Amino acid sequence: MTLNELMRAVDTLSDAELLRLFAHLEEQRVRRFAAREIETPTEDRTNAPLDMRDLEEIFAEIRTGFTEHDLQELEWAMNNEFVEALPDDLA
Question: What's the rounded Cα separation, in Å, for the pair 15 and 85?
């Protein structure tokens, strides 16, 4: 089966089937990423503690371009919105 055929088949899935497929793909992504981390250790800060100054710089970069109104909406969304867990039969 080619990738194009596979994508056309995905278009025919029900919502429940699509959620199961998404969960399966996420599991595959996590598994492959974890395997790569084990196979290729790096000298970067992947698992190192984050320096607070670095964190402050990261947040400063994120804030750049946002208006005060944007930041208020973002804060509201982070405090009020949530993602519901998948039902047990789809997890």
Answer: 15
User: Is 22 exposed, middle or buried, given 0-12, 13-18 or 19+ CB atoms closer than 10 A?
Assistant: middle
Distance CA 81, CA 84 (A): 10
Q: Which of 77, 52, 74, 78 is nearest to 63 (CA)?
A: 74
Residue type, 35: A
Tokens 């790569």, located at residue:
36
* C-alpha to C-alpha distance for 73 and 57, rounded to whole angstroms: 22
**What's the CA gap between 89 and 10, in Å, rounded?**
20
Query: pTM, whole model, 2 decimals?
Result: 0.38
CB 90 within 8 A of CB 19: yes
Q: What is the pLDDT of residues 19-66, one digit of tens each?
A: 888 888 888 877 877 766 555 555 555 666 667 777 777 778 777 878
